[in-house]
Amino acid sequence: MKLKNNVAALKLSPLVKIVSWVLLPLAAVLRFLQVNTVVDASTGFYIQSSPLTWAVNVLLIGGALAVMIYSYLSKDAEALQPLPYRNIGLFVLSLLFGVLLLLNAVKSLDGFSSAIAGLGVRSVKEMMSSGALPLLFQAVFALLSGVYFIFVAVSYKKGSLLASKHRFLALAPTAWIASRLLHMFVRKIAFTRVSDLFFELLACVCMILFFLAFAQTASGVYSTGMSWRLVGFGLPAGLLMLVLQLPRLVFVIMGSGSHINENHPFSPTDVFFGLFALALCLVLLRAPLEEPAVPEKKAAPQQKAAPEESTYDKIPPVSYGG
Question: Considering the entire predicted model, what is its pTM?
Answer without folding.
Answer: 0.84
